[in-house]
């Protein structure tokens, strides 16, 4: 079976890590074809627009995209491209795995947490933000809907079921935010009943922060609203050593976009030393999404083994003396000898 995915090389280190990632994907010989499209500064320079229609068309046609980081220019009139993509394709679930890898500078080991964040409502609405005429009072609204809560919680439980996970923790602040967080929690309780084989517990967000730092091993899947999920997923990335190994996926009714959590790293762009692992782990999640679960698992295993062996071809941020390309060579070698 051949499947075409849209590929956006992106800005800064984007082209370097995308190149390394596609070489590793090619070595799996799983029938992926690529339709390249531009976005970000690369698109602005070549086509005069940050997010050309042709790119949106490519993402809709393929349904799945692998995306390098995009630089959003600073200044008026440029809204975040990631926010725009989220809106266009109704990317309601932001899924961020935080997994411990060997030989990193992380403070913890043995962590494997999946954070599922609602990505379209909650406290992050662009509308409804006001400032009083005297500039003394600012307000914004939080909107939680039954539909929005149902689909994110169901997504989290379906993901847990598919991946054989044991527990979903619903994170909320319903004790204070009784209407909004309360609705989310009530809906979550209803949905949880459809998944009797998966344990469901509830935790208030501030306690969750403390528990994540003190006993992270108690967490399996976390599902929560937009603002809490934004903060908790970065907290979880910090537990396992930061951005270099942090993938993210944005799943919607219109498309699914897989990317690294980090940005375009202008400070090291063009040097060929960017760590491709976060994007590779996103690509592994993309393979899972495409029902190529065995291949996704092989990619993660190859990364794990390469880190465990402290292969000198790893990039400098992981303590190696290699480059994006040499790192890809090391991974391909492992994938071919299995
Ligand atoms: P950044 O994540 O690009 O860089 C932060 C630090 O981490 C830098 O020192 C960088 O060298 C390092 N780093 C990041 N990725 C790395 C990798 N793969 N290998 C080795 N080192 C790595 O964050 P920053 O500097 O705040 O943002 C730069 C640009 O990226 C901005 O224009 C921002 O808007 C954009 N950005 C885009 C994102 C996306 O498209 N999803 C996400 C975050 C930022
Ligand atoms: Mg964030």
TrEMBL record:
Gene3D superfamilies: Isopropylmalate Dehydrogenase (3.40.718.10). It comes from Metallibacterium scheffleri. This is Isocitrate dehydrogenase. GO terms for biological process: isocitrate metabolic process; tricarboxylic acid cycle. Belongs to the isocitrate and isopropylmalate dehydrogenases family. Keywords: Oxidoreductase. The keyword Mitochondrion does not apply. GO terms for molecular function: isocitrate dehydrogenase (NAD+) activity; magnesium ion binding; NAD binding. InterPro entries: IsoCit/isopropylmalate_DH_CS, IsoPropMal-DH-like_dom. Pfam families: Iso_dh. PROSITE patterns: IDH_IMDH (PS00470). Residues 4-331 form the Isopropylmalate dehydrogenase-like domain. The keyword Oxidoreductase applies.
């Amino acid at each position: 079976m051949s499947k075409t995915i849209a590929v956006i090389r992106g800005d800064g280190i984007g082209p370097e890590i995308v190149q390394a990632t596609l070489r590793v994907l090619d070595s799996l010989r799983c029938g992926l074809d690529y339709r390249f499209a531009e976005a970000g500064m690369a698109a602005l320079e070549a086509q005069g627009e940050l997010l050309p229609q042709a790119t949106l068309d490519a993402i809709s046609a393929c349904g799945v995209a692998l995306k390098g980081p995009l630089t959003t220019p600073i200044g008026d009139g440029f809204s975040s491209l990631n926010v725009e993509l989220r809106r266009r394709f109704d990317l309601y679930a932001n899924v961020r795995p935080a997994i411990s890898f060997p030989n990193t500078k992380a403070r913890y080991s043995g962590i494997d947490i999946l954070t599922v964040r609602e990505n379209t409502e909650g406290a992050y609405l662009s509308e409804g933000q006001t400032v009083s005429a005297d500039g003394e009072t600012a307000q914004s609204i939080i909107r939680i809907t039954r539909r929005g809560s149902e689909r994110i919680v169901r997504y989290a439980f379906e993901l847990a079921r598919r991946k054989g996970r044991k527990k979903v923790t619903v994170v909320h602040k319903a004790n204070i935010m009784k209407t909004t967080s309360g609705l989310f929690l009530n809906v979550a309780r209803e949905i949880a009943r459809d998944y009797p084989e998966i344990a469901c517990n509830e935790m208030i967000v501030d306690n969750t922060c403390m528990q994540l730092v003190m006993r992270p091993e108690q967490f399996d899947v976390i599902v929560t609203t937009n603002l809490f999920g934004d903060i908790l997923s970065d907290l979880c990335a910090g537990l396992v050593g930061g951005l270099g190994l942090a993938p993210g996926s944005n799943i919607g009714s219109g498309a699914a976009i897989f990317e690294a959590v980090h940005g375009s790293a202008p400070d090291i762009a063009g040097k060929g030393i960017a760590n491709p692992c976060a994007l590779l782990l996103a690509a592994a999640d993309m393979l899972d999404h495409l029902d190529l679960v065995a291949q996704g698992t092989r990619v993660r295993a190859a990364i794990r083994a390469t880190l465990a062996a402290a292969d000198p071809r790893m990039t400098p941020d992981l303590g190696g003396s290699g480059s994006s390309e040499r790192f890809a060579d090391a991974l391909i070698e492992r994938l071919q000898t299995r």
